[in-house]
Design goal:
Length: 273
C-alpha cells in the first residue's frame, strides 16, 4: 500500500528492521552503543545521513578480541563506518578515486571506532602502515607524559596537532620569566604525512631529551596555553579536580590525573602572508 511505510515482499507486509544499536546525538556527535560492547562508537552528526545510519545494526569486526582493539564498526549493507562517513563528507567519487590511488581512510588518533570527520583523513597505505608501527605506538606509550593528538578541521581544510602536557612543562618569556604550560596547539596547511613526521619527531625528542621543540616544525602557527597558577591545600593536592569560583580545574603533574587529548580549535586559519 502506497505511503504505508512497510516493506512488501511477495504480498506480505514486513515492518522495517530495527537497529540493535542505541544512538544518541550529543554535541553534534552520534554516540553508538550496543549491549555487551565495552566501548562507544563515535561519528559526526549530519541530518542527511542520520536516518540511514541509525536504521542499521553496526557490529565490531573484532568483537571477540582479547585486546583493547575491537576492530572497526561495520554494517553488511553500508560497509565500514569510517569509509561510509568519508564518502558522505568528501563524496563517493573522491573516496573511490583515492582508494584506486592506494590511499586508505586513516583514523588519526588510531581509535578505530572514532569515526568523527575530524579524525578521518586519506593517507597512502604504506604511510598508514608506518604510522601504525611508529607514531600510533609511541603516542600511546608517551601519553601520560605528553598527549600528542592529530586532527583535521574540515571547515578550514587544515590540520592541527595538540600536545597536552601531563608532565610539568616550563616555558620562558623573552624577559626570562618562567611559566607552566598545559597545552600546545600547532596549525598546519601542508600535507598530512608531514604533520605525522612532525608529531613523531616531537615524541622522539621528548623521550630522548626531555624537552618539547616546536621551532623546527612545519607548523604555520602555534598557540600556547598557560596553566592557571592556583594555590592548593594539602587535601586538594591529593584530588583530581578542584573548583574555584564555580569553575572546575584538573590537577596535573601529580601522577593521578592525566590529559588524554586536547581538542582542536575549530575555525583556526593560517596567518595571512
Amino acid at each position: 500500500m502506497a505511503g504505508s511505510g512497510l516493506d512488501v515482499t511477495e504480498g506480505v507486509a514486513q515492518m522495517p528492521r530495527q537497529s540493535k544499536n542505541k544512538f544518541e546525538i550529543i554535541n553534534n556527535e552520534i554516540h553508538i552503543t550496543r549491549e555487551g560492547w565495552p566501548l562507544i562508537g563515535l561519528t559526526t552528526y549530519r541530518e542527511d545521513y542520520y536516518e540511514e545510519l541509525s536504521s542499521k545494526t553496526w557490529s565490531l569486526t573484532k568483537s571477540n578480541s582479547d585486546t583493547e582493539d575491537k576492530g572497526y564498526l561495520s554494517n553488511g549493507t553500508l560497509g565500514l563506518l569510517h569509509r561510509y562517513i568519508a564518502g558522505k563528507w568528501y563524496g563517493e567519487d573522491v573516496l573511490k578515486n583515492m582508494t584506486e590511488k592506494g590511499y586508505v581512510v586513516d583514523h588519526m588518533n588510531n581509535n578505530h571506532v572514532d569515526c568523527r570527520i575530524s579524525n578521518l583523513e586519506f593517507l597512502k597505505k604504506s604511510y598508514n602502515t608506518a604510522k601504525g608501527q611508529a607514531f600510533d605506538v609511541d603516542s600511546k606509550a608517551m601519553e601520560h607524559h605528553i598527549a600528542v593528538n592529530l586532527f583535521k578541521d574540515f571547515s578550514t581544510g587544515c590540520y592541527q596537532m595538540t600536545i597536552g602536557c601531563n608532565d610539568d612543562i616550563v616555558g620562558i618569556t623573552s624577559d626570562g620569566k618562567k611559566y607552566h604550560i598545559v597545552a600546545i596547539l600547532l596549525l598546519y596547511d601542508c600535507d598530512y604525512s608531514i604533520v605525522i613526521n612532525d608529531a613523531e619527531n616531537i615524541l622522539r625528542v621528548y623521550e630522548t631529551e626531555g624537552r618539547i621543540d616546536v621551532s623546527k616544525t612545519y607548523a604555520c602557527d602555534i598557540k600556547i596555553r598557560k596553566a592557571v597558577d592556583i594555590q592548593l591545600t594539602e587535601e586538594e593536592k591529593n584530588g583530581a579536580v578542584i573548583i574555584r569560583d564555580g569553575v572546575p580545574y584538573l590537577i596535573l603533574g601529580t601522577g593521578k590525573t592525566f590529559l588524554n587529548s586536547v581538542h582542536y580549535q575549530e575555525g583556526w586559519m593560517p596567518p595571512k602572508k
